[in-house]
Amino acid sequence: MSESSVDEATDVFIGHRELLFGLVYNMLGSVADTEDVLQETWLSWTGRGTAGIDNPRAYLVRIAVNHALQRRAVITRRRETYIGPWLPEPLVAEGDGAEDPALRTESVSLAMLVVLESLTPLERAVFVLNEVFGYAHTEIAEIIDRTPAAVRQLAHRARGHVHARRPLYRAHPRVRREATERFVRAALGGDIAELMEILAPDVTVWTDGGGRRRPAGLKPVHGRDKAVRLINSFATRGRGPSDLDLRYRRVNGDDAAVLFQGDSPYAVMVMDLTPDGDRVSDVYIVTNPDKLTHVHKDEEAE
Questions:
Q1: Residue 161 Cα to chain centre, angstroms
Q2: Which among 51, 176, 243, 266 is placed 20 to 30 Å from 170, CA to CA?
Q3: pLDDT for 181 beyond 80
Q4: 3-state secondary structure of 162
């Protein structure tokens, strides 16, 4: 393959990279694995060349999705020995996130990604392609090499499972921001009464430290009393919260809190709200350093 052909193929790939990143990330829930899959996709694409391909976008999507399906097996094996709850790797925007290409793609909330983890790899691929990116069943059938009837069945199962666990509701951004700030103030300030007020009675707290950070529950914690104890122990660990620097960032398209210890990311905290928007139904706290390597402090953010 000539150098000019490689350059042409690379330009085409770069033109579709944003789409491919969004597709693969929503299938895998990992920024690092997504980058690896995109590298594999680029190698497959440049090795093949663009000659004779009428629809490069469709061809690239097919390559990326199938590489992502293969990567799921690697992730599944990795999770078998993972310590504590496993949460998706948060996609954190720099600053206000307005110019972040990854977050300009169709954003799936962290809470939704947690639900998608319960689907089979094929169900998840079909759900992401159909529900998030709007691909028709016939197009998906060509991408994953299944019949349209099989794709419709996969889509039906995935949609039913997701909608049963995840209400079709998303709070207004202003409501989310206010609830997030109220929760973080109470959590880091050790305001037990305020935490009891803002947390729903059946709240669930997920803390993903991967065995690398303490304290972190080995299982999701259910119920307001247990949640308050866990959050309070998190906020008052070791030297206390005074050494933590708070930034509000967009995480998977939603307002969230990112805590830094010096210049290093310490935790990403994402809150999900009840349908009426006045209380926190789920708290997702990612402290595993391996999942925060792409999170950088922006001194001009505040």
A1: 19
A2: 266
A3: yes
A4: helix
